Amino acid sequence: MSIDNVIKNIRNIMRKDDGVAGDGQRIEQIVWMIFLKIFDDQEKFYELRDSNYRSPLPEDLRWRNWAANPEGITGDELLNFINQKLFPKLKEVSNGKNKHAEIIRAVFEDANNYMKSGVNIRQVVNEINKINFNRKSDRHLLNDIYENILKELQSAGDYGEFYTPRPLTKFIVDVVDPKLGETVFDPACGTGGFLVNVLDHVRENYIKRKEEEERLQDSIYGTELKSLPHMLAVTNMMLHSVETPSNIKRDNTLAKPLTDYTHKDRVDIIVTNPPFGASVQDGVEKNFPSDFRTRETADLFLYFFIHILKEGGRAGIVLPDGTLFGEGVKTRLKKKLVEECNLHTIVRLPQGVFNPYAGVNTNLLFFTKGEPTKEIWYYKLPLPEGMKQYTKNRGIKHEEFDPVREWWNDRKENEHAWKVSIEDVKERNYNLDFKNPNTKEEKEYKDPKDLVGEIEKKENKVIEILREIRKNL
């Protein structure tokens, strides 16, 4: 079975349907169907393993009973079944404290069926039925399909914000090095890319006995606000052998007052790419101390990371350039960060790593809570020779992180690496935007749209500073 043919066939069918408009809706449509097919295949395994297993779904809603037969219901009968029975019941499915029921309800809470032709739906369902998710070969195929879907998020309008390039998530997880038994949290988990890398990393390096797998799965947590990426994250975890991904919650991490977090909520590791360049919902900033209140999402997340980590806990996060040189609340945040944590490494990423969704320059920050910063190592990751910036068709690759990996445990200054003392940071009022002193900085390509955006952000910062000054008059 060809992965390209499966995707091509589904795409072509959906293009004929008047109800599906754009990449985002097509992705959501495919994913809820795949989710139900995966769950049904998993239930077949549960039933073989445990004769007492009972599905949380009513019999007529199980994939095997309405979708599995290629000659089954179609046309208006299928469309009416999905719109009037399947979706309403999945949104309120309940079975005591059954974790599978909770997952299904959360996944379908805001899901939609966009297709308007029951005949087209039947054709898509029949394509999906070609895959057996209990066969290793087919699971591998679905991983390919899934990665294809995730990459399409990059061009699916605002959905692009939830896609973090896989080479980047893998590098962060590898150097943070989560171990078996350590609790790992991604409080803005998007489609679950970081958490899947954590699963792979721990399985490859630290699991020696089959019974340790349950301990691993119980130690991984994620939270996502939006419905589509949450659905993708849950599906992603199931594809990576997490039977009950009930630790992947749909919620707003920042909406909970910090005082509600107790010692038992603290975690060993945070790996994440928090949303930046956006404002939080009204009132969320009041959950934070007055000196750190802001509408900038990335700033509040940074405060949260410091707060939620255990003593000795480690973090690897993505942040924009604006955090490094920003003032006001950002200055106070950076002061708190270097006083309470050892900010030991900043990897400065090349232009366009998140294209086409965002052209803003980004950085990887690595820190350990519980000891102050004495010096910060910087590593400027260069663009491949001959490139001005990454694009949708030529993104960052795994091997481009190899030089940083080789340098990581044997640090020396070179044309890409340098270090800065905490005294230098304090002298610059906690401005962390240090340029590489060991090489002549090349002029970076900047799209005119990005330049306009940077000007607007700087103007907004000036307005924010003026407001703070006015409050103190």
Explain what the structure shows.
The protein has helices at 3-15, 22-49, 63-66, 75-90, 99-108, 118-128, 136-152, 166-176, 193-205, 212-218, 227-239, 297-308, 321-325, 329-340, 402-408, 422-427, 448-472, and strands spanning 184-186, 220-224, 248-250, 267-272, 309-320, 341-348, 362-369, 375-380, 417-421. By secondary structure, the protein is of the alpha/beta class. It folds into two domains: 3-134, N6 adenine-specific DNA methyltransferase, N-terminal domain (Ferritin), CATH 1.20.1260; 156-472, 3-Layer(aba) Sandwich (Rossmann fold). It has a nine-stranded mixed sheet with strand order 3-2-1-4-5-7-6-8-9. Helix 11 links the parallel strand 2 and strand 3. Helix 12 packs parallel to helix 14 (329-340). The N and C termini lie far apart (70 Å). The mean pLDDT is 87.
